[in-house]
Amino acid sequence: MALSDASIKRLIGEGKLTIDPFDEGNLNPAGYDLRSAGEVVLEPGQHGLTSTLEWISLPPDVLGILHVRSSFAREGLFASLALVDPGFRGQLTVSIFNAGKGLLRIGCGERFIQLTLVQLSGEAERPYKGRYQDSLGVVESRRGLSLSVSLWKELYSFMLKLYGGKVSYWQARGYMI
Hints:
It is a single chain. This protein folds into two domains: 5-119, Deoxyuridine 5'-Triphosphate Nucleotidohydrolase, Chain A; 147-177, no CATH class. The protein is flat, with a radius of gyration of 20 Å. The chain has four helices and ten strands; from the N terminus they run H-E-E-E-E-E-E-H-E-E-E-E-H-H. 22% of the residues are buried. The chain is 18% helix and 32% strand. By secondary structure, it is an alpha+beta fold. The chain has helices at 5-13, 70-74, 149-162, 169-172, and strands at 18-20, 27-28, 31-35, 40-42, 47-57, 62-68, 77-80, 89-98, 104-106, 111-119. The chain starts with a helix and ends in a 5-residue tail after the last helix. The strands form three sheets. The protein has a four-stranded antiparallel β-sheet. Strand 2 and strand 3 (31-35) form a beta hairpin.
């Protein structure tokens, strides 16, 4: 069940949910509008990353769902919006893309995405403890596949020697070693 503005305020008051800085004016009937931590200007067809101004801490029984605010969607803003897992703490990094025909600007402190909070049927057995826990500002991908081409070649050559010339593409990337 999605949490109402009253439920969100109650969880914050009880210290179970953190949205910092919190502005009651950003509450809406079924969520909270998050602001951009910095100004973002995207040309048509341009991709970028931005972070929320707010630092979020979700309890183990609440899930967050992000949505682009409709005004920005009407201007051509697309965003890749992951779920915010129960137990997550930190600022949220958002991948955005301007699919519109004109320049798209998100001002520093401007509301651009809505966080809808959903009460789970119980506490998660394994709340989030992943690689983006306690994120501050824009955080690039931490998938582990972002080595430069020259470094991959060097690693592959080393592994060929180590394994006698029999190394697959995926073994070189650590998937089947």
